[in-house]
Design goal:
With about 280 residues, this protein is mainly β. Helices cover about 5% and strands about 45% of the residues. It has helices spanning about 15-20, 35-40, 185-190, 265-270; strands at about 1-10, 20-25, 30-35, 50, 55, 65, 75-80, 85-95, 105-120, 135-145, 145-160, 170-175, 180, 200, 205-210, 215-225, 230, 235-240, 245, 250-260, 265. It holds the Pfam family DUF2961.
């Protein structure tokens, strides 16, 4: 169990501090976690309450993680403040015994990827691959090695006053030419078919933040997998099509949670995103 509670001198700085304060964890000498604490908790921007099987964010701001994080010899937890305001942190970690399997043991990973002004294309408008605005697949993460994908947090700042999440999710495993999971829209993947922008809490899927009925502003979804976890032997890729109800832009921040054998690497970890200023 890992518990984190953050405080700022000025309450107005709290949301930015949750994004600018980064959790870094190393197991047996290798970094496997690099993620802003607000995104790691599943609540995205603002520290909104969350009630899920693996994570809880309480009304007073305590962020609790119940991910199992095995290691063989050593674990090192570091908290980095990459912002320009002072923060105070109360961190508690609870450990226990673990029988490490030298052949099949896996480490917990949490990778964070951020991109501002992701271009979105209007859905149901005929386009061709030669079109400069042809919708792309936005990768949340790509992984090389053996492991199991167990969930993600998708924190969005929508610059439009219409829905941004018409793109299908695609999960690719071990270099397959066609996705092993091919969805019907981001809103379906996160249990909000027909795109109602509403808050909800369930054990394995949550929407802790939704600022406006037209989806403008901040929206956060998180999903964790149990029976539907995705094992892979060689590689894994998770992407979303960039489609909305009109052409426009949105800021995407994705946290992917996965377990990997020693030596497994991800693109999000290799090209490490550094938190910046939040849009006002």
């Amino acid at each position: 169990m890992l518990s984190i509670k953050l405080k700022t001198d000025n309450p107005a700085d709290y949301a930015q501090a949750l994004r600018s304060t980064v959790l870094k964890i190393e197991f047996d000498g290798e970094q496997t976690v690099w993620c802003p604490i607000g995104d790691f908790s599943g609540s995205g921007v603002g520290g909104k309450p969350l009630k899920s099987w693996y994570r809880t964010v309480t009304g007073d701001g305590e962020m609790i993680s119940r991910w199992v994080m095995p290691y063989q010899h050593t674990a090192k937890i570091t908290v980095l403040n990459v912002g320009d305001k002072r923060v105070s942190i109360l961190l508690k970690a609870r450990n226990g015994t673990w029988a490490w399997n030298k052949k099949q043991g896996m480490y917990f990973h949490a990778d964070w990827k951020n991109q501002n002004n992701v271009p979105l294309r209007q859905v149901d408008v005929p386009v061709y691959p030669t079109d400069k605005n042809y919708p792309m697949d936005w990768d949340l993460n790509t992984i090389e090695g053996s492991g199991v994908f167990v969930g993600e947090t998708f924190a969005v700042y929508n610059h439009m006053h219409v829905w941004y999440g018409e793109g299908d999710q695609k999960l690719w495993v071990d270099g397959a030419k066609f996705p092993v999971e091919y969805g019907t829209g981001t809103e379906d993947y996160y249990n909000t078919s027909w795109a109602p922008v509403v808050l909800y809490q369930t054990p394995f899927a949550n929407a802790p933040r939704a600022d406006n009925a037209d989806s403008f502003g901040y929206n956060t979804f998180t999903r964790t997998r149990n029976l539907d976890a995705v094992p892979f032997s060689k590689s894994f890729r998770f992407s979303l099509e960039t489609l909305g109800w009109q052409d426009g832009f949105a800021d995407f921040a994705a946290t992917t949670y996965w377990y990997g054998v020693k030596g497994a690497k991800s693109s999000a970890a290799t090209h490490q995103s550094i938190p910046g200023k939040l849009p006002q």
